UniProtKB/TrEMBL annotation:
Keywords, sorted A to Z: Nucleus, Transcription, Transcription regulation
Lipid metabolism among keywords: no
Record organism: Clonostachys rhizophaga
A GO molecular-function descriptor: DNA binding
Keyword Nucleus appears in the UniProt entry: yes
One family name in Pfam for this protein: Fungal_trans
Top-level lineage group: Eukaryota
Protein name from the UniProt record: Xylanolytic transcriptional activator regulatory domain-containing protein
Stretches the record annotates as Disordered: 549-580
Parts of the chain that traverse the membrane: none
Xylanolytic transcriptional activator regulatory domain boundaries: 222-295
């Protein structure tokens, strides 16, 4: 067997894991950016400064060196036990052939990276190359690296639909399920290692798993993984500046970007799930992401501007939602005016070309820019979330005679409540118009919690606003929002039930409008609202996935023979690739916005059946459970965004 044949499938080299023993390495050899030792080597400088503060003379400090040596022995890498090696071997067995790995990493970087920093792309790709080519590589005993690679494969798998060759009508073997559980199953066996090991890769791996799980279990598993990543980042002191001279500029900037990526996503997600703040922003001392040539020149997808913009937006959002704690009109208006100024300044700070309709839909930056604006509009919604319900509630009670005049006057919303509600409603409508851009360019994907939750909350706010006033495009906007939600929820039972939640709210709103009209309190009759990868790269991925999902899932999988790996690469395109959510368009006009009224008209398609929701659903890994644990109804409320509207006041 040639070396070239040997590296195609990493499962064939797992025996080498048993041959690598790190127990003989000295602790000092592991003091790198991937080890927490980088923070602990400040002891000599700390003691030196302490002597200086006490006006003592500088002298040799053997006590400091002794502390460093003792700590290195405590926190240094432990010897791998036989059961550790078996778990690592099973995880490596789950690695795809090299061409498939390259394709998934390409998709992860160009489609999944979005506005975040997952890892130093140049470094990881170099280590992937080492992993596949060097059978003696120590990376094969590094649970952090193995987990990070598997998480990157899993995240890339979620976006393979965006790389489906145009015009293909074939379906993927896992179109109705999650195409990446094959990788997630292996990562789960390594979670104890990730929690315990002092490694930057372990933090990044936990973070990537949290991102991967967001559309499947945002409330449960994903939120927990993001919390683990955040707390390990805090323990790793990523949130604080360090003057450790042993760290290079590249390593320092990697730490800074990793921190801001984790913090921003965790904070924004916590707001969307109505969860409390995890940490006080005042303890963060690291600077925002900034240019770093050693990293940037090797980045396959350079999204530095998006990273910094997202981090700044997270800080603005963190301050803006404090409006909900205000009890007086003056306090609310003061915070609202400040938040309004901050948000508008943030928007003005974006480069002039950062407009969805100015970016080609095929560009890797397209969805990232879309998400920046989506979160921008969400910030306005978050500020006025409960006040919209307050205004609608007051409107219904006064016009349907549900309260006395005395109660009506005492409960009347003040000017600040109306201002916040109006801003919330405007943002919701703009967000729905924003979604048309990804719907008409083939950039909508099932696996995006951000997309689904954003579209859901925008549709809900628009429905609520329609109780008070329904203009000419109300029906089209709501129908469009529901259509997008149905497409994004395909194959995800939890999301599909969430769509039914939104439809149930729509029916209640229609009933309220009908009641107002019957009572002569509405001038309008109720509107009836109806219910650079290549094609070959993609096909190799789809074919490998089909075969991999049919392999036995025992504790030890046999490596596929070389002949089988070769046949995967040589078969024609007849194997069905993954079907995207919507059809792509072949036209794009950069000088004109894509958000035009004609495409918002309600459709009469029978694409979505009115049959009972669970009819025809079968259990299995292809469909996702309602929730892993916790309260299912709470999860659905948070998935759709209903919880942030504070319906408890109704």
């Amino acid at each position: 067997m040639s070396s070239e044949e040997f590296i195609q499938t990493p499962a064939t080299v797992t025996a080498s894991v048993r041959e690598v023993d790190t127990s003989k390495d000295s602790p000092e050899e592991h003091i790198t950016i991937d080890s927490h030792q980088t923070e602990r080597t400040i002891w000599p400088r700390f003691l030196s400064r302490l002597r200086e503060a006490f006006t003592l003379d500088e002298e040799s400090q053997p006590e400091a060196q002794e502390i460093v040596a003792m700590q290195a022995r405590i926190t240094g890498p432990r010897s791998l036990q036989p059961w550790d090696l078996r778990r690592l071997q099973r995880a490596i067995d789950g690695f795809p052939p090299r061409p498939v790995a390259d394709f998934l990493l390409y998709v992860c970087i160009h489609r999944g990276t979005d506005i975040f920093f997952f890892f130093d792309q140049g470094k990881l790709l170099s280590q992937i190359d080492e992993f596949y080519n060097d059978v003696q590589s120590p990376l094969r005993t590094d649970a952090g690296f193995i987990s990070l690679a598997l998480a990157a494969f899993a995240l890339g798998s979620q976006f393979t639909s965006l790389e489906k060759p145009e015009g293909s009508q074939n379906r993927s073997p896992s179109e109705d399920g999650d195409p990446c559980t094959i990788f997630h199953r292996q990562i789960r066996t390594l979670i104890p290692d990730l929690i315990e090991m002092p490694s930057l890769y372990s933090i990044q791996a936990l973070y990537l798993v949290g991102v991967y799980l967001m559309p499947l279990s945002a409330l449960n598993s994903s939120y927990v993984y993001l919390g683990l990543a955040l707390r390990k980042a805090l323990e790793f002191d990523l949130h604080q500046c360090t003057d450790d001279p042993s760290l290079t500029d590249r390593e320092n900037e990697t730490r800074h970007r990793t921190w801001w990526s984790i913090y921003a996503l965790e904070r924004i997600t916590a707001v969307k799930l109505n969860r409390p703040r995890a940490i006080e922003p005042s303890i963060i001392t690291v600077p925002l992401p900034k240019p770093c040539p050693p990293i940037d020149t090797e980045q396959k997808f350079d999204n530095l501007i998006q990273q910094a913009a997202n981090a700044r937006l997270a800080m603005v959002l963190d301050r803006a939602i404090e409006i909900g704690n205000c009890t007086t009109q003056r306090a609310r208006m003061t915070l609202y005016n400040q938040a309004e100024a901050d948000l508008k300044e943030w928007k003005r700070s974006l480069p002039s070309h950062f407009k969805v309709f100015k970016v080609h839909p095929k560009e890797s930056s397209y969805r990232g820019i879309f998400h920046l604006y989506l979160n921008y509009y969400y910030a306005w919604i978050a500020m006025g979330k409960s006040y919209t319900v307050t205004v609608v509630r007051y409107y219904l009670r006064t016009r349907l005679g549900a309260t006395s005049n005395l109660e009506t006057n005492s409960d009347k919303p003040d000017e600040s409540v109306y201002a916040l509600s109006s801003a919330c409603i405007r943002a919701a409508r703009k967000m729905l118009h924003l979604f048309e851009s990804i719907a008409t360019t083939g950039n909508m994907t099932r696996f995006s919690f951000t997309d689904f939750q954003g579209c859901s909350i925008a549709t809900i706010v628009t429905i609520l606003a329609g109780i008070i006033e329904r203009n000419s495009d109300y029906e089209a906007l709501v129908e469009f929002g529901l259509s997008c939600l149905k497409k994004m929820s395909a194959g995800i039972v939890t999301a599909q039930i969430g769509v039914r939640f939104v439809e149930a709210l729509q029916k209640i709103a229609d009933e309220a409008v009908a009641k107002l009209y019957a009572a002569g309190q509405s001038p309008q009759p109720p509107l009836s609202v109806g219910t650079p990868a290549t094609a070959a790269d993609y096909n190799r991925w789809a074919q490998w996935l089909s075969r991999a999902n049919h392999q036995p899932r025992g504790d030890s999988s046999s490596p596929p023979p070389r002949a089988e790996a070769s046949s995967i690469l040589q078969q024609d395109d007849s194997i069905s690739p993954y079907d995207p959510v919507v059809e792509r368009t072949n036209t794009w006009v950069p000088t004109q916005p894509l958000l035009t009224e004609p495409s918002l008209t309600a459709t009469t398609s029978t694409e979505f059946s009115e049959a009972p929701l669970l009819q025809g659903f079968q259990t299995g890994e292809g469909l996702f459970p309602l929730a892993g644990f916790g309260d299912e109804q709470t999860f659905l409320m948070e998935l759709t965004g209903m919880d942030v509207l504070d319906f408890s006041q109704m």
